[in-house]
Model the fold of this input.
Amino acid sequence: MKQPCRLPSGGIVDRAQPLPFEFDGVAYEGLAGDTLAAALLANGKHLVGRGFKYHRPRGIAGAGVDEPNAFVRLGRDARTEPNVRATTQELFAGLEAASQNCWPSARLDIGAINGFVSRLIPAGFYYKTFMWPPTPKWWLRYERVIRHAAGVGRVPTLPDPDAYEHQYAHCDVLVVGAGPAGLAAARAAAHSGARVVLCDEDHVFGGGLLGVAATVDGAVAAEWIAATVAELADHPDVTLLRRTTAFGHYDGNLVGLVERVTDHLCAPPEWMPRQRLWKLRARTVVLATGAHERLIAYANNDLPGTMLAGAVRTYVERYAVRPGSRAVVFANNDRAYATALALHRAGVVVAAIVDPRAGPALDGALPHAARDAGLPLEFRDIAETDVRAADELWVTSSSKEVLAIVTLDGKPIGDGKPGPVFRRMYGLYQEFKRTVMRAGREKAAA
Amino acid sequence: MLLIPCPWCGPRNQIEFTCGGDATVPRPAPEAPEAEWMRYVYVRDNPMGPHVEWWLHGAGCRQWFKLNRDTRTHEILASAPPDAPPATEP
Done:
């Protein structure tokens, strides 16, 4: 197998369908179902470009549209497209991509010299510094070099050979995003008799559920997705738009969509538009877009090797790619542990899980007072139903001290009056203030 | 882009319409003094909130009508034919 970092099993890639592609002139092989980024990682290729200013090496950090680093140039001649995210570009046989902002190559880059003189190029360094000496002759001399270094990517110089389409449409419900929430929303809307449009920027529906070992309504995730999509596809009033990004939500629920019709084809048929712009007027818009992670700030977090935890999990579970051999997982939310487990299953050594979150705040004044008074105390995650069924609810904070909530969403909590446990707790806290917090002051006054 | 309910054609895209300005200024009698005509032609309020305007459905039924639009939120509160009493919802 030519793909050294591909896992032997798992993922939703088609191992029977290898796709040859080229990156920086070198031939590689990916699988059907890959993005360009997944295929590069499967080949152990992490360095995909250079930064704009200091030409620092850039790797793949994300697995979707939130990718900040892996911008590549796609295609050649008139069909050159600069600044394509490797993480969103679907792989096809014969794809040609190249790294940007580097010369002669991403590995050996002349512009990286800027990194060594970075102390001389402060933030906000401005090209007009080169206006001196103030004669046009000197500026023209600098300009040739500066223009060469400026900008990210290169635009093609030939006319665009492709055609583009506009499409107006109306619907009752537009669902943006076809993860589990979006699919369920689209199905519920279709059952109600509404005209539904479901769009997702990916080439398959399923979103965060793709490749994940989970169950939905008692069914295995992949089967649930397939059944739901099949049901929606059969429905006469449902339009499914794959490879379609909703980019704007305007007055009166007008939504702009761009459908990439042929960007995943090596040789698109002449009659097909390359992209289609939808101006969709929806009665209701459901945003089921999911969430993005953000990179943690630390030194050198821009270099290859730093990846978002959710993206790592996507590469392992959806694309069956091992994005490294040894990992440290930084967990600022519980889902990072799923990443650690996925890495472990993929044979990656998880050297450490760093979780900076404090444990449950059990040592505040109120918990202490409650525990001293023998009140049973438990810290745990609670469901919304627990909150609504509670006999008493309080807000506690340093300015509110302890405050009973008597109505929630217009409904009374308990009997609609501060409850007995609240009164006891309130008394305990006043006692605490008097005896502990003001103790020093009374001493000073005395 | 607003979705404007034409009293005759139903909800249509804003691009089919042209705004004709304030519909709350009463037209003075022909023999009214010049100052009153001056006020009618040139002086306009710039209200913040619901505001009744003239709109022309130029790319549709080509009729003028009155539209009550919230100038802060673009929310459209009501529309009515020109001879209807001014649509002044809160």
Summary: The longest strand of chain A covers residues 164-176. Chain A is about 25% helix and 25% strand.
